[in-house]
Design goal:
This protein is an alpha+beta fold and about 400 residues long. It has helices at about 25-40, 50-55, 70-80, 95-110, 170-180, 185-205, 230-235, 270-275, 300-310, 325-335, 350, 360-375; strands spanning about 5-10, 15, 55-60, 90, 115-125, 130, 145-150, 255-265, 280-290, 320, 380-385, 390-395. It has twelve helices and twelve strands. Strands 1, 2, 3, 4, 5, 8, 9, 10, 11 and 12 form a ten-stranded mixed sheet that branches. Strands 6-7 form a two-stranded antiparallel sheet.
Length: about 400
């Protein structure tokens, strides 16, 4: 009989600004920190418990070209002091990497291949390296250009249609044109993100979710601007179009550094971990569309996840939607025809930040704690992904079943 996969715990670092407080922290060290902390919080993993009970570490990462050393999951497990017998695998689905890692792990648990899997993800967009393409012959006579691995397309195959390879910002401009998302709505959504994130920190919501990075003075997410107003946001210049644009630095997620971890296990793992399960992974969904409309891909991903969970949007009480851009978030919310107030009640990526490989773990962990806090039964975590993909996970609160 198939098993179920449950979320037992979740932690993350504070998210730092690009070039900010976490600029000196290597991504493998950030990943090791959250792996180590989530192990320490499980009584059953103390001593030799990790060697006996942890079946695998699966982390997400969108870069991998630098200090992540290709397979940051294995690096983090070793740096965290886990036994060398614990294997590690890294998933790369760009912005959705750590949510994908949790989905991969949950399937492994449901099929009986594992009982305990440490999942999550990491990204240091500050420390992402520049890359230089190799030449076919040594000592070329012409110039070569370095390409940044921080964000977006690089070393693009010339066979790719030009309309697919526009910048993420230009793609969002095209999306908001298609779905008639105004600048006013985008700025109001962004202001709400900062206001709710600041309030959540002040109320202590993140106290049990966020762990400090040793040696760094960063007590909360660095990109939150408590003094943000709609009027200030309205005064910002557009970033991607000089004429007729609406997307600004204020209504888009920033570049960030950070790591997240989510502890998944079977029902049997409750005894092994010494923890009570919080939420069951009840449905998963993946979707894809035209690359330039990547921001809309969560719509179908979430619909598929709900169908597989056997519920509808009318059953859902909480949504964690990664805010890559205000425009794409609003397009998704409009398509689902849901109450916007159930979305990102504790702030979103526009305020908190979007370190690519860590964001899926952040939204899954936040949703878990939100359902636990409210006692509500059903929630959805979903994320858009560059090059036209989306992922979603449906959670069921164990205490409300």
């Amino acid at each position: 009989m198939p098993s179920h996969a449950f979320v037992y715990d979740a932690v993350r670092t504070p998210f730092g600004r690009f070039g900010g407080a976490l600029a000196g922290a290597r991504p493998d060290d950030l990943a090791a920190l959250v792996v180590q902390r989530i192990v320490e919080r499980a009584p059953g993993l103390a001593g030799d418990g990790a060697a006996e009970h942890v079946d695998e570490v699966v982390l997400g990462n969108a870069n991998g070209a630098g200090e992540e050393n290709r397979n940051v999951a294995r690096m983090a497990a070793l740096l965290a002091g886990l036994p060398t017998s614990v294997p590690g695998s890294t998933v790369n689905r760009l912005c959705g990497s750590s949510l994908d890692a949790a989905m991969v792990a949950s399937r492994s648990i449901e099929t009986g291949d594992a009982d305990v899997v440490l999942t999550g993800g990491v990204e240091s967009m500050t420390r992402a390296p520049w890359v230089l393409p190799k030449t076919e012959k040594p000592y070329p006579a012409g110039n070569l250009s370095l390409a940044s691995t921080t964000l977006g397309w690089r070393l693009v195959n010339p066979a790719m249609p030009a309309e697919w390879t526009v910048s993420l910002g230009e793609a969002t401009e095209q999306l908001r044109e298609k779905y008639a998302i105004t600048r006013d709505r985008q700025d109001a959504f962004a202001e709400r993100s900062h206001r709710l994130a600041d309030q959540a920190w002040s109320d202590g919501f993140y106290d049990d979710l966020v762990v400090a990075v040793p040696g760094v003075e960063l007590s909360r997410d660095e990109s939150i601007r408590p003094d943000t107003t709609v009027e200030r946001l309205a005064g910002l210049r557009t970033s991607f179009r000089k004429e007729g644009g609406t997307v600004t630095a204020g209504n888009a997620s920033p570049l960030n550094d950070g790591a997240s971890a989510v502890l998944l296990g079977s029902e049997r793992a409750q005894r092994e971990l010494g923890l009570d399960p919080i939420a069951r992974i009840a449905g998963r969904g993946a979707s894809a569309n035209e690359p330039q409309f990547f921001g809309y891909a969560p719509v179908e991903a979430a619909n598929r996840a709900l169908s597989r969970a056997g519920i509808t949007w009318e059953d859902v009480s909480a949504v964690e939607l990664n805010e890559a851009f205000a425009a794409q978030s609003l397009a998704c919310i409009d398509a689902w025809a849901i109450d916007p107030e159930i979305v990102n009640r504790h702030g979103g990526a526009i305020a908190i930040g979007h370190p690519l490989g860590a964001s899926g773990g952040r939204i899954l962990g936040t949703l878990t704690r939100d359902l636990q806090r409210t006692g509500e039964r059903w929630g959805v975590a979903c994320i858009c992904i560059g090059v036209g993909q989306g992922l979603a996970v449906v959670l069921e609160n164990v205490s409300s079943r």
